[in-house]
Structures are given as C-alpha cells and as structure tokens.
TrEMBL record:
UniProt topology in membrane: Lipid-anchor
Chief subcellular location: membrane
Compartments reported by the entry: Endomembrane system
NCBIfam families attached to this UniProt entry: small_GTP
Identification of the protein by name: Ras-related protein Rab7
The organism of origin for this protein: Rubroshorea leprosula
Molecular function as annotated in GO: GTP binding; GTPase activity
Family: Belongs to the small GTPase superfamily. Rab family.
Keywords, in A-Z order: GTP-binding, Lipoprotein, Membrane, Methylation, Nucleotide-binding, Prenylation, Protein transport, Transport
PANTHER family found in the cross-reference section: RAB FAMILY, RAS-RELATED PROTEIN RAB7-LIKE
C-alpha cells in the first residue's frame, strides 16, 4: 500500500459555555454560513472538512455539542478518541473566560488517558466583531497569559459572524493535533482502492 494514498482522520472536539459561538464557528468553517438566530441544537454529532497540510490529506471530524453543555451532560462518546480539544470563550463575557479551567479539566477527566501536559488544546476568543470591540472585556494579553500558563496553548481571536480567522483557528487545531505525540487514525483515501481491496478479500464493498 502506497503510504501517500492514506489520509489522516483527526477528531476535534469543541467545548465552552453555551452561547459563546461554538456552533457558529463550525458552521462558518464548514458551510461558510452564519446564522444570527440562536440555535442550541444541531442534528448531527459531527461535521467533516478535508484539508491539505504539507503533503498530508487530513479529514477533520469536528464534534459539536447539541446544547448539553448547559447541563454538564456530555456523554463519553463525545470525548472518546479526541485528537485535539478546541476551547471557546466569548471575549465580551468574562464568565465564559473564567470557566475555561473548568472545561479543560472536564475534558482531561472525561478523556482520562491523556497526559495533560502534552495533549493538544487550542483556545479561541470569539465575537471580536461585537459592537466594534467596545463591549470587549477580555483583552488579548489576558487570554495569551492563560494560554501560557497552560503550556503554551495556541490562541486565535475570531469572528464567526464576519468569518475572521476561523479557517486559521481550525487549521491551528489540526496542526497541533498532527504535531502532538498522541496517535491519530490513518485510513485509505481512495474509494476505488478500498473497493478493489475489498473485492480481493471477497467481501462487500459498500
Ligand atoms: P454555542 O452555544 O456556543 O454553540 O453558540 P452559538 O453558535 O449558538 O451562538 C450563540 C449566539 O451568538 C448566536 O446568536 C450567534 O448568532 C451569536 N454569535 C456566534 N458567533 C458570533 C460572532 O462571532 N459575533 C457575533 N456578533 N455573534 C456571534
Ligand atoms: Mg451550539
């Protein structure tokens, strides 16, 4: 098997207080859409996006909550096999910044196999567009300080509404996952190859 024909699957989970813009960031990143209305629930567990990083073909599988973060009841399937955890807060709401420690600890507890010092986290400060920045209460320096104390977590300031820095933030998440020592899944990239191989084995190709 030609190794270059393989692609990498990265499971990225997005965590943070309800209302910070997690679903909006994902919608903007994957569908290039922004919805002003508040929708706490989405239908699917995850969305996927393909990207090339260096010579690698990477599929990001991005998991969003369906609003359960309000009740602290995210099941173990949500955390299982995560390759990167994206923490999101709203730069206009101090409480969402102060709960980052909680979300980080919760992730490390639920996905308990991980070494807290090496597992790749990424921090996003979202809604930087709001009121032209006048309602902002968490400055960039403060956010970067928190990242530094947590082992130099990469930090991105975004606006899901205006599609500012959203691609870079998820690219940063993918790069952090690839650079980490945590093992990720590699699978075949070409359907025709998969079919041929399956036929060789005499199995079903569907
Ligand atoms: P979630 O609960 O973390 O998934 O947050 P949502 O994505 O549902 O967003 C909550 C609310 O914030 C919605 O009304 C969004 O339209 C709004 N919102 C999300 N991102 C942004 C942003 O970058 N700028 C502004 N101004 N509003 C945003
Ligand atoms: Mg949501």
């Amino acid at each position: 098997m030609d190794v270059s024909k393989r692609r990498i699957l990265l499971k990225v989970i997005v965590l943070g207080d309800s209302g910070v813009g997690k679903t909006s960031l994902m919608n903007q990143y994957v569908h290039k859409k922004f919805n002003q209305q508040y929708k706490a629930t989405i239908g699917a567990d995850f969305v996927t996006k393909e990207l090339h990083i260096d010579d690698k073909l990477v599929t990001l599988q991005i998991w969003d909550t369906a609003g359960q973060e309000r009740f602290q009841s995210l099941g173990s399937a949500f955390y299982r096999g995560a390759d990167c955890c994206v923490l999101v807060f709203d730069v206009n709401t101090l409480k969402t910044f102060n709960t980052l420690n909680h979300w980080r600890k919760e992730f490390l507890k639920q996905a308990d196999a991980f070494d807290p010092n090496t597992f790749p986290f990424v921090l996003i400060g979202n809604k930087i567009d709001k009121e032209g920045g006048r309602s902002r209460v968490v400055c960039e320096r403060k956010a970067r300080e928190w990242c530094a104390t947590m082992g130099n977590i990469p930090y991105f300031e975004t606006s899901a509404k205006e599609d500012y820095n959203v691609d870079d933030a998820f690219l940063g998440a993918a790069k952090s996952a690839l650079a980490s020592e945590h093992p990720y899944d590699i699978f075949l990239s070409s359907v025709s190859e998969t079919v041929a191989e399956t036929q060789q084995r005499g199995g079903c190709a569907c």
